[in-house]
Design a protein that fits this description.
This protein is mainly α and 398 residues long. It folds into two domains: 180 residues, no CATH class; 194 residues, no CATH class. Helix content is 72%, strand content 0%. The two termini are 21 Å apart. Keywords: Membrane, Transmembrane, Transmembrane helix. This is CAAX prenyl protease 2/Lysostaphin resistance protein A-like domain-containing protein. InterPro entries: Rce1/LyrA-like_dom.
Length: 398
């Protein structure tokens, strides 16, 4: 209760500051500066921010209280999309570059933690399991999108925002509080004490080879599959952006898919005799399907190949997480895998695949699925079950 009381005060202060800034800019635009667009944005924000005070009201009618949690989770997360672009416009118009950069640095850091009140006071109090599932996806997508508002000058801030690393960190922090509120155990950062050292060494070697192959193998036929390597960096100019992009994907997607979604699936399937098998399968399927969002920025054929590859990679990532018992192994693997591909190509998107790419995909799928099955069967299954018990995933959380 003491923590919630402090978070309620935090939300009150955060909302008041937003409200005061919008009121000030509204007065300025109405009586000093004529700007129809700015005035309209200010009026909309004034309404949205004012409504956020209702989450602090403990006397809301019981029939409406759950509805309000849904509304506030969506409202509090969505409003900053407009608010920060609004602030950004004001800074550019009315301050110099030094002040603009300094304020944006503060905002960028603060954004990592700003949704904790929403998670504690709204999203964390949603009771329906499907409501939780849908809202968590909405929050994840919105936070990732809104973290990429434009930065006018500073190269480091541009790289941070364009890469969505701030959104990934923000979601990880928010989900940490929300999942605890829902009764889940937070992810472990240490390797399970039960894993085999031999298997761990094999996994490390496999991960290194897989990452290098993904980025630097230039074979265009089976003849050069072991000999055609090109260790290059496509562009030094955007290396920081590509590195942060890979890290953002590693943190955001692994936190969402392996910590949040896999935990949900394991709970939903807790009465199934094949709980582990179906949980990692559906987790991989969802992980593959979310890559359909890449369709607007790359050829459809590339997206379809990416979806199939991501689905099997997702299954492997799930099996790896369950066996090692730590989210760090997944973040590291995912980060290195994407980083190798990005720095080799100089881009975050894929080109149209060749016939050989499709042939190679079949082999990769079989390898990933084979290793996944190995990690969750036989003696390894006992390690997985031990790790699940530590995470409390055999107990009801809903």
């Amino acid at each position: 209760m003491v923590i919630e009381k402090k978070i309620r005060s935090w939300h009150l202060l955060q909302t008041l500051l937003q409200l005061l800034l919008v009121i000030f800019s509204l007065i300025y635009s109405l009586f000093i500066h004529t700007g129809g667009t700015t005035t309209f944005k200010a009026f909309v924000l004034l309404i949205l921010i004012s409504l956020q005070f209702s989450v602090l009201n403990k006397n809301i009618n019981s029939k409406l209280i759950q509805c309000n949690y849904y509304f506030q989770a969506i409202s509090i997360t969505s409003t900053p999309i407009f608010f920060f672009t609004f602030v950004n416009d004001l800074l550019i118009k009315y301050t110099n570059a030094a002040i603009t950069t300094f304020v944006l640095y503060l905002i960028t850091i603060y954004k990592i933690f700003m949704f904790i009140p929403m998670g504690e006071l709204a999203l964390g109090k949603v009771q329906n399991k499907w409501g939780r599932f849908c809202l968590l996806w909405f929050i994840y997508l919105i936070i990732e999108v809104e973290s990429t508002y434009p930065i006018p000058t500073n190269p480091f801030l541009k790289a941070c925002t364009n890469s969505a690393i701030i959104g990934s960190l923000s979601f990880a922090v928010t989900a940490w509080f929300v999942m605890k509120k829902w009764g889940f155990v937070t992810p472990n950062f240490k390797l399970s004490s039960k894993i085999s050292k031999i298997i761990l060494c094999i996994l490390i070697i496999f991960i290194v080879i897989d990452c290098l192959f993904n980025g630097f193998n230039g074979a265009d036929s089976w003849n050069g599959i072991f000999t055609n390597w090109n260790f290059r960096v496509a562009s030094n100019n955007n290396l920081l952006y590509l590195t942060l992009s890979a890290l953002a994907v590693g943190i955001g997607e692994e936190w969402m898919m392996r910590f949040c979604m896999l935990s949900f699936l394991l709970k939903l399937l807790q009465n199934s005799s094949r709980q582990i098998f179906w949980a990692i399968f559906f987790d991989g399927l969802i992980f593959g399907l979310i890559h359909l969002f890449n369709t607007p920025v790359q050829p459809l054929s590339a997206t379809l190949l990416q979806v199939i590859n991501a689905m099997t990679v997702g299954i492997l990532f799930s099996a790896l997480y369950l066996y090692t018992g730590t989210i760090i192994s997944n973040i590291a693997y995912h980060f290195l895998y994407d980083l190798a591909g990005m720095i080799a190509s100089g881009s975050t998107s894929m080109l149209s695949p060749t016939i050989f790419d499709w042939q190679l995909l079949i082999s990769i799928v079989l390898i990933y699925l084979g290793l996944s099955l190995f990690l969750v069967t036989g003696k390894r299954k006992k390690v997985v079950e031990y790790n699940l018990n530590l995470q409390g995933l055999n107990k009801k959380a809903f």
